[in-house]
UniProtKB/TrEMBL annotation:
<keyword id="KW-0808">Transferase</keyword>
<dbReference type="InterPro" id="IPR041711">
    <property type="entry name" value="Met-tRNA-FMT_N"/>
</dbReference>
<protein>
    <recommendedName>
        <fullName>methionyl-tRNA formyltransferase</fullName>
        <ecNumber>2.1.2.9</ecNumber>
    </recommendedName>
</protein>
<dbReference type="GO" id="GO:0005739">
    <property type="term" value="C:mitochondrion"/>
</dbReference>
<dbReference type="GO" id="GO:0004479">
    <property type="term" value="F:methionyl-tRNA formyltransferase activity"/>
</dbReference>
<dbReference type="Pfam" id="PF00551">
    <property type="entry name" value="Formyl_trans_N"/>
</dbReference>
<dbReference type="InterPro" id="IPR036477">
    <property type="entry name" value="Formyl_transf_N_sf"/>
</dbReference>
<feature type="domain" description="Formyl transferase N-terminal">
    <location>
        <begin position="62"/>
        <end position="218"/>
    </location>
</feature>
<dbReference type="InterPro" id="IPR002376">
    <property type="entry name" value="Formyl_transf_N"/>
</dbReference>
Length: 370
């Protein structure tokens, strides 16, 4: 804790080190005399919102440097674009993840000082022990998109939506060399997940709260009033691993319509929900919803699909008797998205694709390189 700094939360070598003695003496006095020098690591829109809140709170920092990914064929990272617009210095990390372990923070962060602070927010890289140890343990802060210890891992927002979690939140956590999101929590904020929340909308909400939370923690650190709470070793939720293409593959035998809609809200911004026609052609489903009306012609076979002409949607049978309404689809290797009627009119002329008037969608395995 700051103000009541606990030796049991720090590695023994830090408790013997002059850095620890200086840091503790400063915190137990009225306040740190110097504002912080901050190294901010991030990349995406979540990072941008947190960074902007930090940047506008100029009472807590003396200087800020941003470290982020270099430009790609898709352009520069949102964080770099924001930093450039604010004339904030930018240090570019190696493009390849394996090379990042050799990255050295820019000056003045080559040596630890009591007012040096490392902040990460949706950074997408794992910091090495050597990199972290350039900062005093209480000054290694990560803004994480969950109320820890729930949803530890790189994709907490997506997994909270997929799992129909009623609430989530954001935490400011001390990064440990053995776990970036397992250290003491300096502050957290809980908020409900709206029934129609998407990854994008929830990310924006969490990032705004996260930025304000970070600023509050840093102000409390300057005044010597910040406190932290150790996390329990076990998390109440599964590890929020990175989203892969396999997460977009649908299984109508095991997934209810509501689960598929939640999955779309969680990962639709980065992965299109995927199934296959009986001919083996991959099919991406766009903007699915739980079907409010099920045509009488639709059987109970999971994966069975018919066209609902009055509502102009494709209706797919899912597990548990539920059904999915799909207004648009896209076939593999086709650029254009087809409206439901246009797609169905292309299916009808080929009777080999139909069983009792239904198209039966199937589940195949993605190739390893997909």
């Amino acid at each position: 804790m700051l103000g009541r700094l606990r030796r049991d939360l720090l590695p023994p070598r830090f408790c013997r080190h002059a850095w620890y003695t200086t840091f503790k003496r400063n915190l137990q006095s009225t306040a740190l005399r110097n504002r912080f020098k901050i190294l901010f690591l991030g990349r995406d829109e979540f990072s941008c919102s947190v960074f902007h809140e930090l940047y506008t709170s100029q009472d807590i920092w003396e200087s800020i440097i941003v470290a982020t990914s270099p430009d790609t064929r898709q352009g520069r990272s949102p964080l770099r674009a924001l930093a450039d617009s604010l004339d904030v210095p930018v240090d570019l990390i190696p493009a390849e993840k394996p090379d990042f372990k050799h990255w050295e923070p820019p000056p003045p962060f080559a040596e630890a000082e009591p007012n040096h602070v490392l902040v990460t927010a949706s950074f997408g890289r794992i910091l090495t022990a050597k990199q972290l140890e350039l900062f005093l343990p209480p000054c290694r802060l990560n803004v994480h998109g969950s109320v820890l210890p729930a949803y530890r891992g790189p994709a907490p927002i997506q997994h909270a939506i997929i799992n129909h979690a009623p609430t989530t939140g954001v935490s400011v956590v001390q990064m440990l060399t053995r776990g970036i999101d397992k250290g003491p929590v300096w502050a957290s904020h809980t908020l409900p997940i709206a029934p129609d929340a998407t990854f994008t909308s929830l990310r924006a909400e969490l990032a705004a709260h996260g930025g304000r939370l970070l600023v509050r923690v840093l102000r409390d650190m300057l005044s010597g009033t910040a406190t932290s709470t150790p996390q329990p070793a076990a998390s109440p939720t599964p590890h929020a691993r990175s989203i892969t293409l396999a997460d977009a593959v649908l299984n109508f035998h095991t997934m209810a319509a509501a689960d598929i809609v939640a999955r779309h809200r969680a990962i639709g911004h980065q992965r299109a929900l995927t199934t296959w026609m009986p001919s083996g052609i991959k099919l991406h489903l766009h903007d699915p919803a739980v079907a409010a009306h099920v045509p009488p012609s639709l059987s109970g076979v999971p994966g069975a699909l018919v066209y609902d002409k009055p509502r102009r949607v494709l209706v797919v049978r899912c597990t548990g008797g539920s059904a999915l309404a799909v207004p648009r689809v896209r076939k593999e290797k086709r650029q254009n998205v087809l409206e439901a009627r246009e797609f169905w009119n292309g299916v009808i002329p080929n009777p080999k694709l139909l069983v009792d008037g239904e198209l039966r969608l199937v589940r195949l395995e993605l190739a390893p390189d997909e």
